[in-house]
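Work Package 3 (structural annotation) set out to generate three-dimensional models for the target panel prioritized at the project kickoff. During this period the team completed the workflow that converts sequence records into discrete structure tokens, so that structures can be stored uniformly alongside our sequence database. As a representative example, we reproduce one entry of 154 residues exactly as it appears in the project archive.
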Amino acid sequence: MPFRLRDQAGFGLVELLIAMTVMTIAIFALVAGLSSGIEATKRASKAATAGTLADRRMETYRRGTYAAIAANDAAGPAEVGPDGRTYFVSSSSTVSCIFGGTPDLMAAPPTCPPNADGLANRPLTVVKVTVQETDDMGAVLITESSTFDQSTGT
């Protein structure tokens, strides 16, 4: 009986190379997906820690009095988060008047002139807390702000 090549079972060299190429592409796709997942997890961890540090700083303002807000504006030293990374936490405050006008910042606490209708005006202070990375060229991770009203004391 004559022996024919196409009757043989199994893989030839071309089929083997195609299968290996497909497997290599699949493995590279899995590795790329895995590494991007790891990077996304790192970013989420940094953002969560930054949120915790911003909340902690904002709570120091909420515990204090209205008059003490401006005195607490500070960049402060770098802080180490619960994840062991170092973060730069800064805070600033701006004063505005509830009915418009320019606040008198020289008074302690700041005061506001009556509005055009003669209504009493009072200052509002907006405190902004910013958390930045110290290792990635100071990228801002989170900014949190809160408004404090002199009439409520907080």
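Helices lie at 13-63.
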